[in-house]
Design goal:
Order of helices and strands of chain A: HEHHEEH
Distance between the termini of chain A: 37 Å
Radius of gyration of chain A: 20 Å
Number of strands of chain A: 3
Oligomer: homodimer
Helix content of chain A: 40-55%
Largest interface: A-B, 71 and 67 residues
Structural class of chain A: mainly alpha
Chain lengths: 132, 132
DNA sequence: ACACGCAATCTGCAGTTTGCATGTAGCTGC
DNA sequence: GCAGCTACATGCAAACTGCAGATTGCGTGT
């Protein structure tokens, strides 16, 4: 039945998807330029749910494609060349826009936890829930 | 050409993906039981970035699959039957866990906007960023 | 010198998720 | 009866994800 193979968030373990990963990356890059490997590790240290390193690299590439970051090969140091990323003006703009949406999102969530419904429902439903 | 069919976040228009959609739904259901169509509209009215209604219905199904919501057919009213959803205990738990992760996430983002880097980077980078 | 491991990036694959368009079913208005 | 709205569901192609593996460059142990 199409449900055994995939991992469907059955555990209470959040993951960092799509825009959330992208914007976290953008946020780190606002602080300081960095390369993929470093960003991948900063994610781990930040207490944020982690993504695969391959996913991080690909996200960075897409961000560059969208014009939100720019990159250049850094060979100034020893070891394999690093692709240094830095935030662009468009990236900062997007980050700001996203944060606004995020604030609304968090309002909804914390509002729900507080026990009242944020938007007025069309009809009063049955089962007024008891707040824990 | 490669941008008419596929949408690759090139505009500064956030979308609600994966867990974010799921948890928003959960949050609404904490306030009051509801059915898919209603939830889809609440999303629009909440100022949150929207998802396709088909996506909403599917998200609801997955949530039910995971045991975070339960549903029954409501035929008490006129019109086509509605699938009424309500939050389960597991759903509330998941919501709480998610909110904690979200707080960390938001710390990172807003910290970045403030102009300082949240975690201390391994090496001092070049380009001390100018705060806007 | 050579194997080994680490740092750093990239890619193939299979499975999942998404947006869009469309399809079904029931009720309302004309 | 036909159009239109509510409410839910599904097919499809494109996109995204995690995992595993490949690649390059450097340092270390023996």
């Amino acid at each position: 039945m199409a449900e055994s193979t995939g991992r469907k968030r059955t555990t209470a373990e959040p993951r960092l998807h799509g825009e959330m990963l992208a914007t976290s990356l953008l946020a780190f890059l606002k602080g300081c330029n960095a390369y993929g490997y470093q960003l991948s590790q900063q994610l781990s240290e930040s207490g944020l749910p982690q993504s695969d390193s391959g996913t991080v690299y690909r996200a960075l590439r897409q961000l560059e494609n969208s014009g939100f970051v720019s990159s250049f090969w850094d060979t100034s140091d020893q070891g394999p060349a690093r692709r240094m990323y830095s935030l662009t003006a468009a990236g900062e703009l997007f980050l700001g826009t996203w944060i606004e949406a995020l604030n609304r999102y968090q309002e909804v969530l914390t509002g729900a936890l507080a026990g009242f419904d944020v938007p007025a429902p069309t009809e009063g439903d049955s089962t007024e829930e008891e707040v824990t």
